[in-house]
Write a structure and sequence with these properties.
The protein is α+β, with helices and mostly antiparallel strands and 332 residues long. The chain contains 14 helices and 13 strands.
């Protein structure tokens, strides 16, 4: 915008005098006029959408002079108070009602899916004609919420997945397979050096959606398995991928490194968690676990791996110095 006003100038007329009340009033009025002109451009032609992601270019003010900071504040205020930010569905809304996303997320997710994921807290994604520096800078400066791998992994739930049609599920699994960020091994809260997708509900088991892996201390164990070639059944404590899901998405499951079950997996998942804390389990649990382990031994199904993990973590209930205590099987 170019605006003329009778500012008080320096003697050589090359600068506006600082600290003059009338000059401050002119600057404030021109800034508000610039903001009002944005609203006029928005309303002048609804079909052409004259205000689109170009608003971020206008607001991308890098000069930190007092007058420019004031203009920038006016832009921020109008973005938050007025429906002037264009959404992906080509409707104007407040900046606070929209999310920013990377190009791949922007292409895949619709406004309905964004609303469902975030409980209607956000109504859509910000319209981006093409990705460039000024857009990402404004996104950071204005603290615009982002739809990315972090927010998706935090919000994606089994209920959300169960509410989707099969066609969308197939497209979503393909999207997850092709998006490198989900497979990158990185360090994040509670999970170190594992792909984030390992801990998202993206595998179908008995018509429910489960996370393929679970973290117990420093150990990560699979929670679901490929159907066993040895005839193991769910009564053995294993959860198997639905056959239909397996047939549709074999490559995805292989990429997740899922495999057929081993008895050591069941021991890790169902037995050892009972003995990882100081509290003594109930007698029913202790008796049931002991019968299970004893039957494995009796049937000669305890391989070396099972023996190793039981020796490390399995405990027996013993009577010592007049008290019941849990003692590691190595020490008993």
């Amino acid at each position: 915008f170019i605006s003329n006003a009778p500012f008080l100038l320096t003697d050589n007329r090359d600068r506006i005098l600082q600290g003059k009340v009338v000059n401050d009033e002119f600057i404030e009025a021109i800034a508000k006029l610039a903001v009002d002109s944005l609203l006029c451009l928005r309303d002048i032609d609804e079909k052409k959408k004259l205000i689109n992601d170009n608003i971020f270019k206008m607001a991308n003010i890098k000069d930190n002079s007092e007058r420019n900071l004031f203009l920038k504040k006016c832009y921020i205020d109008v973005m938050k108070k007025e429906k002037i930010i264009l959404s992906k569905s080509l409707q104007y809304d407040h900046l606070n009602a929209l999310m920013y996303s990377s190009e791949s997320f922007y292409t895949f997710f619709t406004y309905r899916e964004v609303r469902a994921l975030f409980d209607n807290r956000y109504v859509d994604l910000i319209y981006i004609d093409y990705y460039r520096a000024d857009v990402s800078r404004i996104r950071r400066e204005y603290a615009v919420p982002v739809l990315d791998i972090d927010s998706l992994s935090n919000r994606l739930s089994s209920d959300y997945m169960e509410n989707q049609e099969q066609d969308w599920i197939d497209k979503f699994i393909h999207f997850l397979s092709e998006e490198p960020a989900f497979w990158k091994k990185s360090t994040f809260v509670s999970y170190t050096e594992y792909p984030r997708i390992w801990f998202m509900p993206v595998v179908k088991v008995n018509n429910h959606w489960m996370k393929p892996y679970n973290k117990n201390g420093d150990d990560v164990h699979p929670t679901v398995f490929l159907p066993s070639e040895e005839g193991m059944v769910n009564s053995d404590g294993y959860k198997f991928v639905d056959v239909d899901f397996l047939n549709r998405h074999k490559d995805f499951l292989n990429k997740l490194e899922l495999r057929n079950p081993e008895m050591s997996d069941y021991i890790n998942q169902e037995i050892l968690p009972h003995y990882c804390c100081e509290e003594i389990p109930s007698l029913d649990i202790i008796s049931s676990d002991f019968r299970f382990v004893y039957n494995l031994y009796k049937e000669k199904r305890l391989n070396s791996k099972c023996v190793e993990i039981l020796s490390d973590s399995y405990k027996l209930l013993c009577f010592h110095d007049g008290n019941h205590v849990m003692i590691n099987v190595r020490e008993s």
